[in-house]
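pasting input
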Amino acid sequence: MGPLTHEPSFSGEPLIPPERYDSLGELLRDAFVQYKSETALIELDRKKEKVRLTYLEAKRIAERLAKRLEDAGVGAGDRVAIVMSNQSRWLLSAYAALFRGAVLVPIDFKLTGEEQETLLRHCRPKVLVTEYPEYRDLSALQRGELSMDLVLVSEVPSNVTLPQPTQAARGTFEKWEQAIETDVETGGSPTFVPRARRDQATLVYSSGTGGNPKGCILTHDNYLEQYRTLLALYPYEVGDRFFSVLPTNHAIDFMCGFVGAFACGATVVHQRTLRPEFLRHVMQEHGITHMAVVPMILEAFERAIDERLEEKGELTEHVVEGLRQINAALTLDKPRGWLSKRLLKPVHDRLGPDLKNLFVGGAFVDRERAQRFYDLGFPLAIGYGLTEACTVLTVNDLKPFRSDSVGKPLDGVELEIRNADGHGVGEVWVKTRTVFAGYLDDPEQTAEVLKDGWLKTGDLGFLDPSGHLHLVGRTKNMIVTAGGKNVYPEDVESTFEGVDCEELVVFASGYVWPGTKLTDEGLVAVVRAKKGKRVEDVLPEIRRRNLKLADYKRIVAVLPWESEMPRTASMKVKRAPLAEEIRGRVSPEALISLEVV
Amino acid sequence: MTRDQLTKKLIELAGKRFERDTSELAAADDFFEKLGIDSFQAMELMTDLEEEFDIEIPDYELQGVNTFEKLAVVIEARI
């Protein structure tokens, strides 16, 4: 889109320029040599450091593993699946697979064993890399019902024996730690397998919440181009520390906490527990500079800051509020990290004094919260992307910070709003080199989203005059009211952001309870109250905000809900399963009418 | 400590943290639902329990654990 896209802002030539490489394996191979004495990986379990590896040490381990994969027959285009929580072995295994020219299949470790097995049946990998706690849940695999050549399991307790190959299952089960015992000096070095840009690099299952598995085919060109555009805006410096907390199968973590980090010589830090107090410990004690988060984590950080301020007393709260306003005024045009850190030291100490950037994506970000973070001096890079387009399509460049938008298209991204309504809202279509090659074995679904080189994102939004993209919802969540108006539940939900409840989701009542006449096609908000509170306590606030909406967007009733809502890996509410749960458990009689006047 | 005693102790500690009357809580209760807590808050309860029993429970041991009974089984294996 010419002038509306970002201008790359590299100050110097990157040490590992993506243009020079044909595959991720090739780029990473050079990075591991280039940065040999830098720290590549740190892994903690609570406060104990379990792993610390330089690039050279990491390279040696990964190459031993690559040798083991080679011996198992893994070569160009063979699939290697990973089902592992965030840890250093994940990245070492991924590099080993790419070194052998394999197609990496990162599978969400948070799925149930059955769901993971459905995906494994779908992609039929040659090798599976997993960890013992995940392996325990893969019962069909243990029974030999999934056939693979090699299954590597890390952290197997000493009293457990892995299954022996049987006639039914020809595969070998082996401890991950045993697989890296062969010294390449004596056992022979692994052979690097080159790949071309157009070749497949990964198969990533998008977090679509229902139906058939959607395996996105992503090429080396997709990733190398994405790395070029994204890191041109937000480059890491050698020695930066990225804290990896989103599952690594997630596109953002894969790019920022694996490919991008290693390509720039940064350190990737893992914490084996995701308990908030240990996350903060890592941020405070390990000099974290970058992190990719989803809105829910941002919310937990905000709680941590508020707790700290409450502990310090009312006076501190007032002083910090004053300083926040001063900082907000001083950073109106662009972030001034050094200044903000000095002005707001007590706040910055809570999340670590070295934090340079928080990447936020994955779901709709609360505008007020994002603005507050920025005003407190934490540069937030709010972005938008989807698995089908590799990682990121648009991102905020902080010139100036905008909490209301998901940013401008990255260099090379053509973005159009198709079939726009009278307000300029339509479906976001994109054309760029990072668009995927299609869904595995599913030409029909592929044809539905890929049209003449354009990707239909399924997201609804509009571009403002300065070229910033604003998202309003998903096409498939769109509700058409009885009056023929289009309503986007995400848009309505954003009106209720900040209401003092745990979770709030908007549905069309006819979607939850099809065929019931009780509430007709009215919108209902499903609300989970905070602990010790009742939904009734927040009704006045909901009523007040509801009246700010155009009449056709107003909710007509509230449904109190008690359990935590199901969410995807990127923390979006899974709407269909939630609606189903509601349908099974409560009837429309439980609705509290809002009596809209 | 028997399983029942342990379960009772867990209920007592959960009641204390989330300010609930323990008589409202039963061994088979889904604690997320009954206490109205989310997964982050459940993690905080785990930290209390770890301190109380001087053990460490890895996050993965807690996958699918949603009742005091199931929690007692996990903890029993560690003390």
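fyi Chain B is about 55% helix and 0% strand.
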